[in-house]
């Protein structure tokens, strides 16, 4: 089923619970939580303390997208503070299989993320141990960037690999997902749609979440 994973990176952090409630009212079913360390990506965002507060403010699954070096060291903290899904960047993990197993051993759903320049074929040997694969449709680090059209082919290839091997991971996309791009990613095979700016950017998250989902499910 197509789901909206609204990215709180574009929300008002001083009124986070209100913004989450609005996106939820608009039909969002997953909270996307972007963690940036200023090392793997050139930006710094939020981490376990904010997650801890957010956990008390929503019953939705919280999907933590770790854009950090040395993810292994922080996985217990994400588990302890209420994360449900944790995805790690292929480019940042030296022992990816170990990291994914570590996430699962802490009771969370593991996912792997690839940057626009990383081929889906590099995921061949972990596709059977992940719950979701996130295909970045922008370079990670900032909200509000333009969708990179070349990523559509990657989504299609990934969907094909899943079918050929009869696997059941879900395909997620992140970056530049709005009313002009959402139909193309769904057509290519994405079902978990991360969107920040297009949900929170205009101060009408209920309506904008709803219309994005309507387009995606059309
Ligand atoms: C980018 C983050 C995204 C970001 C998407 O590094 O991973 O989740 O919030 O923002 P929009 O929807 O504005 O492109
Ligand atoms: Zn993200």
UniProtKB/TrEMBL annotation:
Residues given in the record as a divalent metal cation binding sites: 32, 34, 65, 174
Cofactor: Zn(2+); a divalent metal cation; Mn(2+); Co(2+)
Designated gene of the protein: rpe
Gene Ontology biological process terms, A to Z: pentose catabolic process; pentose-phosphate shunt
Cofactor note text: Binds 1 divalent metal cation per subunit.
Keyword Metal-binding: yes
Gene Ontology terms for molecular function: D-ribulose-phosphate 3-epimerase activity; metal ion binding
The protein's enzyme class: isomerase
Protein name: Ribulose-phosphate 3-epimerase
EC number: 5.1.3.1
Involved pathway(s): Carbohydrate degradation
GO cellular component, one term: cytoplasm
Keywords per UniProt: Carbohydrate metabolism, Cobalt, Isomerase, Manganese, Metal-binding, Zinc
Acyltransferase in keyword set: no
InterPro entries linked: Aldolase_TIM (IPR013785), Ribul_P_3_epim (IPR026019), Ribul_P_3_epim-like (IPR000056), RibuloseP-bd_barrel (IPR011060)
Species of provenance: Terriglobus albidus
């Amino acid at each position: 089923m197509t789901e909206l994973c609204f990215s709180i990176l574009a929300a008002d952090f001083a009124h986070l619970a209100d913004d989450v409630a609005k996106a939820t009212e608009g039909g969002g079913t997953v909270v996307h939580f972007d963690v940036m360390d200023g090392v793997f990506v050139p930006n710094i965002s939020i981490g376990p303390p904010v997650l801890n507060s957010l956990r008390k403010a929503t019953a939705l699954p919280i999907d933590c997208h770790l854009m950090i070096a040395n993810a292994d060291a922080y996985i217990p903290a994400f588990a302890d503070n209420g994360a449900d899904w944790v995805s790690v960047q292929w480019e940042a993990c030296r022992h990816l299989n170990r990291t994914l197993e570590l996430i699962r051993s802490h009771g969370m759903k593991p996912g792997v993320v690839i940057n626009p320049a990383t081929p889906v074929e590099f995921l061949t040997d972990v596709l059977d141990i992940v719950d979701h694969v996130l295909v970045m449709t922008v370079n990670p680090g900032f909200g509000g960037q333009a969708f990179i059209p070349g990523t559509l082919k990657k989504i299609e290839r990934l969907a094909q690999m899943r079918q050929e091997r009869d696997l059941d991971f879900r395909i997620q996309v992140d970056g530049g997902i709005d009313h002009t791009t959402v139909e193309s990613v769904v057509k290519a095979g994405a079902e978990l749609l991360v969107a920040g700016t297009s949900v929170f950017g205009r101060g009408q998250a209920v309506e904008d979440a709803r219309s994005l989902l309507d387009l995606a499910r059309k």
